[in-house]
Amino acid sequence: QEARIREQEKLAVVGQMAAGMAHEIRNPLTSVRGFAQLMSEKMAEEQNPYKEFMEIMIQEIDQADSFINNFLQLARPKPPKMQACSLNQLILNFIKIFESQAFLQGVKIGIDLGEIPTIVIDKDQIKQVLLNLCQNALQAMNMQGTITIATRFHAAEKEVSLSVRDNGPGIPGDNIDKLGTPFFTTKDKGTGLGLSISYTIVDKHQGRIEVESTIDEGTCFKVYLPVYEQF
Ligand code: ADP
C-alpha cells in the first residue's frame, strides 16, 4: 500500500510534461471521433459495407482516449468533483456505448441492478472505473461469454456495491496481490494503468475494491462506495 503511494508520487512528478502532451492529443482525437461517428451513421443509411471499418476506427479511438484518461488521472490526479448521482442510471448510460463494443467481440452484457439509494460521487471518475473493469472483463474473454454488471445496497454497512463479473480464465493467486500496482500487466499490449487508476479513484471516494477469482471460471471485481446520510 505504502509502496504504491510512493510510486504514484514519483509518477506524478515525472508525468507532468507528458500530461500536457496528452491534452494536445485528446482534442484532435475528439474531432476525428465525431466525424467518424457521423460517417458511420451515413454509411449505415447507405448500407455501405465499410461501415464496419468505421466502427473499428471509433473503437480504436476510444481505446486511445481511455489510455489518455488513465494516464492523466495518474500524472495529475484531480480531486473528485462530488455530486449526488444515480449509479444505476450511470451504468445504463455507460452500457449504451459499451454494448456495441462488446457485441463486436461476441460478448453479451447482463445487468442486475438492485434498488439502491442516491450516492455522492465524481461521475466521470466512477465511469472511468466502470470502463476499466469492463474493458478488462472483455479482454479476458475470448469471443464469447457474458459480462454481468450488478448493483446492491448493503443497508447495515451503509454501502452500495457495483460489481463487474466475467467468465474468463480467472486470475492466478500470485497475481491477485499485484493488482493495482502501476504498470503491472500480463497483456502484450497492456499498460497496467487501468486497475491502478481505479483503485486510486475508489480510495479517494472512501471506498474499496474486492476481487474474487476462480481459475477457469471467472473473475468478479466489486467496488464498494459509501452512502452518506442525506441532510
Ligand atoms: P492492463 O489491462 O493494461 O493489463 P490493468 O491494470 O487494467 O492493466 O490490469 C492489470 C492486469 O490484471 C491485467 O494485465 C490482467 O493480468 C489482470 N486482470 C485484470 N482484470 C482481469 C480480469 N477480469 N480477468 C483476468 N485478469 C484480469
User: Which small-molecule species are bound to the chains here?
Assistant: adenosine-5'-diphosphate
Average pLDDT score: 90
Low-confidence stretches: none
C-alpha-based Rg, rounded: 18 Å
Strand content: 15-25%
- Summarize the helix and strand pattern as letters: HHEHEEHEEHHEE
Largest sheet: 5 strands, mixed
* SS content category: alpha+beta
Domain Histidine kinase: 20-229
Protein name: histidine kinase
Organism: Desulforamulus reducens (strain ATCC BAA-1160 / DSM 100696 / MI-1)
Written account of the structure:
This protein is α+β, with helices and mostly antiparallel strands and 231 residues long. The protein has six helices and seven strands. The strands form two sheets. It has a five-stranded mixed sheet with strand order 2-4-5-7-6. Strands 1-3 form a two-stranded antiparallel ribbon. A hairpin with a 3-residue loop joins strand 6 and strand 7 (218-226). The longest helix has 44 residues, at 2-45. The model has no long low-confidence stretch (mean pLDDT 90). Bound molecules: adenosine-5'-diphosphate. Adenosine-5'-diphosphate (ADP) is lined by residues 132, 136-137, 140, 166, 168, 171, 175, 179, 184-187, 190-196, 219.
